[in-house]
Specification:
The structure is a single chain. The chain has helices at residues 2-16, 53-60, 100-114, 147-151, 161-179, 238-243, 249-264, 280-284, 291-297, 309-322, 333-350; strands at residues 49-51, 68-71, 76-81, 87-92, 125-131, 134-140, 188-189, 198-200, 206-208, 215-216, 224-225, 245-246. The protein has 362 residues and is α+β, with helices and mostly antiparallel strands. The protein folds into 2 domains: 49-140, Phosphorylase Kinase, domain 1 (2-Layer Sandwich); 145-351, Transferase(Phosphotransferase), domain 1. The strands form 4 sheets. A 6-stranded mixed beta sheet has the order 1-5-6-4-3-2, sandwiched between helices. A two-stranded antiparallel ribbon has the order 7-10. A two-stranded antiparallel ribbon has the order 8-9. α5 packs antiparallel against α7, α5 (161-179) packs antiparallel against α11 (333-350) and α10 (309-322) runs antiparallel to α11 (333-350). The chain starts with a helix and ends in a 12-residue tail after the last helix. It binds adenosine-5'-triphosphate (ATP) and magnesium ion (MG). Residues 72, 196-197, 209-210 line the site of magnesium ion (MG). Belongs to the protein kinase superfamily. Its EC number is 2.7.11.1. It catalyses: L-threonyl-[protein] + ATP = O-phospho-L-threonyl-[protein] + ADP + H(+); L-seryl-[protein] + ATP = O-phospho-L-seryl-[protein] + ADP + H(+). Keywords: ATP-binding, Cell membrane, Kinase, Membrane, Nucleotide-binding, Phosphoprotein, Serine/threonine-protein kinase, Transferase.
Length: 362
């Protein structure tokens, strides 16, 4: 039970300090004020653990360079080994002082949301550390890193079309679960869905990560209006950026961008290209339903024997609908899952081996 652990640990902290106005004094989850109306239900089968700074140091060999996995906006990520022998990924919060308050909120949202979710296509939060001013997030270790690295040739294994389709459907199922009320009783919008936040396990099974910007969308309040637009350049829903109206469909737009990355092997934004070609959606949107022109944008790294043009055309059509400017014209994530099942079936059948069987949605 994560909240039991948080409270127990908090009692320990409170006994050291009575200054409740200090933002660095750890408060129980009930006081985090992420969303006052959120239910306290938990879906996790196993709770997340609370670690000390010392335990984080021991796990990573004092953050040794050889354990360094990568760096993002929040800080560095290291591979670590817990006393149980479990290999984990440890994300260390390293922010400039003026960004610390924002980082703290993201940290709390991440712990709060992720410790309540349980789905094979969402990364598991093993635990966290909030020791003094130090903050760490401890995740299950994803051996094959993030999707973007594979599409850009940093990962060793080339991803053929069936593998890419499996990643697409895995990510779609993860998002569909978040958007459904089955997760915690109300839909959640991820807000930072992108190819670096799709992690791949040993079998190239996709798991969504980074929930720091996620938001609960209670029934009847499916639209959240904000003056501050958060997310990543290249994945922004144009309706959200122009009106501030955040909906679940903003994730669908970002999902469409990832589909285009899978199809073309290009980045969502490539600053090495000329100003008119930098944005992937703007670059390819108009040709997605034109089979002849479509051939020209298929990732040249894709082995020709791994795909049928029929499945590529269906995939491009789905992507084109996900990135529509009008959010109401985009499909839901549940519809995306169903269409991807059909695309996988079509590709497999076209290649002469129907090995795919329809499974349940989530
Ligand atoms: N659970 C994990 N297992 C293995 N590697 C991970 C894990 N989590 C993150 N990484 C790696 O650590 C690196 C940094 O990840 P991080 O999420 O901090 O940044 P990002 O998603 O690349 O960028 P941003 O901070 O802008 O969202 C990535 O290269 C990612 O592959
Ligand atoms: Mg990330």
């Amino acid at each position: 039970m994560p909240f039991g652990l948080v409270s127990a640990w908090n009692k320990r902290r409170r006994s050291k300090s009575h200054d409740h106005s200090d933002p660095w004094v750890y408060k129980p989850a009930e006081h985090w004020q992420i969303e006052e109306q959120t239910p306290r239900a938990t879906k996790r089968h196993h709770g997340s653990s609370v670690f000390t700074l010392r335990e984080m140091e021991v796990a990573t060999g004092s953050f040794r360079e050889e354990n360094f996995l990568g760096k993002g906006g929040f800080g560095r990520v290291y591979r670590g080994t817990l006393p149980s022998g479990e290999v984990v990924a440890i994300k260390k919060m390293e922010l400039a002082p003026f960004k610390e308050a924002e980082g703290e909120l993201e940290f709390r949202v991440e712990v709060d949301i992720l410790s309540r979710l349980d789905h094979p296509n969402l990364v598991t939060l093993v635990g966290y550390c909030a020791d003094g001013k130090d903050r760490f997030l401890v995740y299950e270790y994803m051996k094959n890193g993030n999707l973007q690295d594979h599409l850009n040739g940093i990962g060793e294994a080339k991803m053929d079309w069936p593998k890419r389709l499996r990643v697409a459907i895995g990510a779609a199922k993860g998002l569909a679960y978040l958007h459904s009320s089955t997760a915690i009783g109300m839909p959640i919008v991820h807000r930072d869905f992108k190819s670096t936040n799709i992690l791949l396990d040993t079998n190239f099974e996709a798991k969504i990560s980074d929930f720091g910007l996620a938001k609960f969308m209670p029934e009847g309040q499916e639209i959240y209006v904000t003056a501050r637009v958060l997310g990543t350049f290249g994945y922004f829903d144009p309706e959200y950026t122009s009106t501030g109206k955040l909906t679940l469909q903003s994730d669908v737009y970002a999902f469409g961008v990832v589909l285009l990355e899978l199809l073309t092997g290009r980045r969502a934004v490539d600053l090495n290209l000329g100003p008119n070609d930098q944005n992937l959606v703007l670059q390819v949107r108009h040709i997605l339903n034109d089979r002849k022109k479509l051939r020209k944008v298929i990732d040249p790294e894709l082995s020709r024997s791994s795909y049928t043009m029929e499945s590529i055309a269906m995939f491009a059509n789905l992507a084109s609908r996900c990135v529509r400017v009008e959010s109401s014209e985009r499909p839901s994530m549940e519809e995306c899952v169903k269409e991807l099942q059909l695309i996988i079936y079509t590709n497999s059948k076209g290649l002469g081996g129907v090995t795919y069987t329809f499974r349940k949605l989530y």
